[in-house]
Prior knowledge:
Layout: E1 2-6, H1 10-22, E2 27-31, E3 43-46, H2 48-57, H3 59-68, E4 70-72, E5 75-79, E6 82-86, E7 91-95, H4 96-109, E8 113-115, E9 132-135, H5 142-145, H6 148-151, E10 153-167, E11 174-181, E12 184-194, E13 197-204, H7 206-212, H8 219-229, H9 231-234, E14 239-240, E15 253-260, E16 264-265, E17 268-270, H10 285-300, H11 307-337, H12 347-355, H13 363-369, H14 371-385, E18 401-403, E19 406-408, E20 412-414, H15 429-440, E21 445-447, E22 451-452, H16 469-485, E23 489-495, E24 522-523, E25 537-538, H17 541-561, E26 565-570, H18 575-580, H19 595-612, E27 619-624, H20 636-648, E28 653-657, H21 675-685, E29 689-692, H22 698-706, E30 712-715, H23 717-721, H24 725-732, H25 745-767
Parallel strand pairs: 1-2, 1-9, 2-8, 5-11, 9-17, 20-21, 20-30, 21-23, 22-23, 23-26, 24-25, 26-27, 27-28, 28-29, 29-30
Antiparallel strand pairs: 3-7, 4-7, 5-6, 10-13, 10-14, 10-15, 11-12, 12-13, 16-17, 18-19
Helix pairs in contact: 1-4, 1-10, 2-3, 2-10, 10-11, 13-14, 15-16, 16-17, 17-19, 19-20, 20-21, 24-25
The structure holds flavin-adenine dinucleotide and flavin mononucleotide.
Amino acid sequence: MHIACIGGGPAGLYFAISMKLRDPAHDIEIFERNAPGVTFGWGVVFSDQTVENLERNDPKAAQIIADEFAHWDDIDVHIEGECITSSGHGFIGIGRKRLLEILQDRARELGVTLHFNAECNPADPKWQDYDLVIAADGANSRFRDAHADAFQVDIDVRANKFVWLGTSKVFEAFTFAFEETEHGWIWAHAYRFAPDCSTFIVECSEATWRSFGFDKMSQEESIAVCEKLFAKYLDGHSLQSNATHLVGSAAWLNFRRIKCENWAVGNTILLGDAAHTAHFSIGSGTKLALEDAIKLAEVLNRPGLSRDAALFEYQAERNLEVLKLQNSARNSTEWFETLHRYLHFEPLQFAYSLLTRSQRISHENLRLRDREWLEGVERWFWKRATDGRSNKTAPPMFAPFKLREMEVENRITVSPMAMYSALDGIPNDFHFVHYGERALGGAGLIFTEMTCVSPEGRISPGCTGMWNADHVAAWTKIVNFVHANSKAKICLQLGHSGGKGSTKLGWEGNDVPLDEGNWPVMAASDVPWSPVNQVPTPMTRADMDVVRDQFVTAVRMGVEAGFDMVELHAAHGYLLSGFLTPLQNRRSDEYGGSLENRLRYPLEVFRAMRDAWPKERPMSVRISATDWVGDEGITPEDAVEIAEAFRNESADLIDVSAGQTSTDAQPVYGRMFQTPFSDKLRNEGRLATMAVGNIYEPDHANSILAAGRADLVALARPHLIDPFWTLRAAAALDYRDIHVPPQYLNGQAQLARNLKREAEAAAAALRA
Ligand SMILES: Cc1cc2nc3c(=O)[nH]c(=O)nc-3n(C[C@H](O)[C@H](O)[C@H](O)COP(=O)(O)OP(=O)(O)OC[C@H]3O[C@@H](n4cnc5c(N)ncnc54)[C@H](O)[C@@H]3O)c2cc1C
Ligand SMILES: Cc1cc2nc3c(=O)[nH]c(=O)nc-3n(C[C@H](O)[C@H](O)[C@H](O)COP(=O)(O)O)c2cc1C
């Protein structure tokens, strides 16, 4: 094949090498606009896995690169005069210039033609003469932008400002240095990539950047300010730029996240940064470029594959990896953009939050990297959780948590789940076994399903209720069992279905009206849930009084039944959620319009409930922290205001769910997908939260808790299938201080032994 590579960066060079290695007959020319040795940036970092990929692809170049690597294990996080050091991170760095020199030599050796000082224009007809034109021309690719529509380019310009500098100061650890100034926070990411040189990236918010006046400074002036700001880390060494062609503030950039729907159009193929970028804070841009290059060369040389089929395969096989990396990179980017949330953390937790920001590194990962450090975090967590009473080294999920006078034994919660199995609202044998079993299973707190305050307030005919003495008696039996046989606390979730009422049992059709026997429904406004649901009657003030009083009666019954806690369900599009979201609330009175107005009735109900509930027992509110429909619905920013409003009415905990408020919602699912909302509410609103949503491993729970992203962690579906999720986790993590029902002690001990043996065998196999 006759191939033109536009760009002599890592992607273009390594693609040419990888093609020649597979078939020396390929005729490949690289066109690079710069002279040899002229490049932006300083060092780049790699992971061990990238190095293994390079070794498999081209052992010779890999060896030369490996010989020049700077290695380091530690990460130092400097904040508020403290330096938190953790180890075992295993980084490898190399100068970008040196990497390119090695790749250029290798490309020449394999017969690739290199043209320097060759600015390429995508409109030049000569590109049609090549079988393939590889657009490896970087993030600002002209070749991509010439066909932006066909490639379906999506560019997201991120909020923070950064400048990529270098220094002769040798940082022995990967260093993050956070400095508070009169203009706001500014920080550096620094690492050594050669015996005498380190990368030094300075980053800050746009507001801080302007407040410093960086927008009006020359590069030299900016550098002088940065040298002064970070003097204590630089030990007299200067900072330097190698983007000397950029004038004034132009050396300060906003990171551009690039994604393309199509990677090949006609004979042009995107490679590396031209196709997709990953934020510098996860250090994976060069990895993406090199691994793209390997994959493209591999599919183009795969026997029996046509050119078009090969290009299809290239994208199909790389897409998932790129998406995963871009997801991690987005998490990391957002962490730095929302730094203000974490600045009140103690330095140790701040460092933990920083290390786990991309969600690629978890609690157990950190244990593998640096057990001693992680155990220090665990001890710190337990100390805080117990007001200094405990010095235990144990996973955070097993630490107690206190809300008013209620202390839960551990941080795992059985999330509320409708069982659709009651008759006339009365919990029966099914409920007795269901809740009893989950209490025996070790969770610190179990929630009832949404228990309705009136027959008309039920979602379905199978919902449980709390409006008469039969309900109190049945719930009392359950609560008594839980208290007598476990350490779990039990919380009564109270709700009213509003416009989503009068529907079938969950498994007969979610939100589908009954075939017969429907009852009239009311809501904030006459907005039906969907075209097949009833049009609700807008509530009058008199209706509002009645429903508020029903909630209060239910709370009093909850006291009688002995519940430890009450939750007001104001999420998922039911009655009170329907007041909160503008998608359902179209009222023109003082209960509609502004968020303050939409909050008025839900707050009134909460206040009345709080007055009826004992002062020493806690109350929570479940909210949907986003409607998942963009700015027309509830946004996470609105959710902070909503959470704060309930907190100001003495809510002790916000149960942070999301969505189910509109059929137009576009949720983004994934592991722990709602946890970012809990993080936002907890750390911007400074209130206690419970995270929920696709959290299914103990490692998830521990990472969330230690990073201060929630105070409690709720699991719903995992508990449906495994009531003993928490005891199983305790066995797996060899945590022995959890309450186990005495009848089950032998089982727990045997499970712990077997899991330990299996883990030891797996570790031995790995070592072998
Ligand atoms: C501040 C910062 C820090 C980073 N840190 C890391 C890190 O630690 N680890 C890591 O892996 N990655 C890092 N990256 C990302 C990394 O630099 C890129 O992901 C990587 O360089 C992508 O390689 P590429 O070959 O696709 O593009 P580039 O390296 O950008 O190469 C593109 C080449 O094309 C040339 N070119 C462009 N247009 C034309 C044209 N019209 N004609 C001729 N030539 C042209 C350019 O001169 C350039 O040499 C960082 C990036 C930034 C901005
Ligand atoms: C069968 C089922 C019933 C549910 N019923 C309720 C409910 O009554 N009240 C409520 O607030 N959430 C309810 N939910 C939502 C869960 O509490 C939880 O927020 C959701 O399932 C996401 O958590 P998970 O990924 O751990 O399942 C229900 C979920 C399921 C699966």
